[in-house]
Amino acid sequence: MESNPSSPAQTGLSTYYDPVDPYAALRSTPPLAKPQQKVRFDASDSQDANGDPPLEYQWNFGDKTPVVTTNKPFVDHAYAEPGTYPASVTVVDKAGNPASASCTQRVQSQPTIGPPYAALVSQPKETLQYEPVDFDASDSQDFEGKPCVQFKWDFGDGT
């Protein structure tokens, strides 16, 4: 049989099988926004069961605007009208397995004074006794979405 360099080569097909759905997480900041104020939706805590990040994020803002699809775990959106909106994200892994998470976004013309939004991240998430842990609350915001200026820490261990 002669070889013809212009003929396509035959290749084997491989199928990727992943029976486990990814994990989806969603948060929004600020939790109380004004109309036309940019709201950041963050799904960066979402993950594939295999440890791979989801490949696709499908954002539904709950305000009848079209669903937005991205490959990034965050997106900004501004609401035109006051209201309470059920926002959601569906993450899809490379095998096509979906998982969804949702949060409620409130939008008010004249926001009332409310409690701050506390965002705490620890690293590592699990540790042994007497091992150091870093805590970060820098994403915490007041009711208007401005950074908090004072923090009071209580680790629950009497220190």
Morphology call: flat
Q: Class by helix and strand content?
A: mainly beta
Beta-strand content estimate = 25-35%
Total domain modules: 2
Total E-strand runs:
10
H-E order: EEEEEEEEEE
Beginning-to-end CA distance, first to last residue: 80 Å
Superfamily (CATH H level) name of the largest domain: Immunoglobulins
The strand order across the widest sheet is 2-8-7-4-5
Overall helicity = under 10%
The CATH level-2 architecture of the largest domain is identified as Sandwich
Unreliable spans: 1-10
Taking the sheet with the most strands, its summary is:
5 strands, mixed
CATH topology of the largest domain: Immunoglobulin-like
CATH class descriptor name of the largest domain: Mainly Beta
Helical segment tally? 0
Plain-language structure description:
It comes from Elphidium margaritaceum. Pfam families: PKD_4 (PF18911). This is PKD domain-containing protein. With about 160 residues, the chain is mainly β. It has 2 domains: about 25-110, Immunoglobulin-like (Sandwich); about 115-159, no CATH class. The protein is about 0% helix and about 30% strand. It has strands at about 25-30, 30-35, 40, 55-60, 70, 75-80, 85-90, 100-105, 120-125, 135. It has a 5-stranded mixed beta sheet, with no helix packed on it. A 3-stranded antiparallel beta sheet has the order 1-3-6, with no helix packed on it. Strand 4 (about 55-60) and strand 5 (about 70) form a beta hairpin. Residues about 1-10 have low confidence and may be disordered.
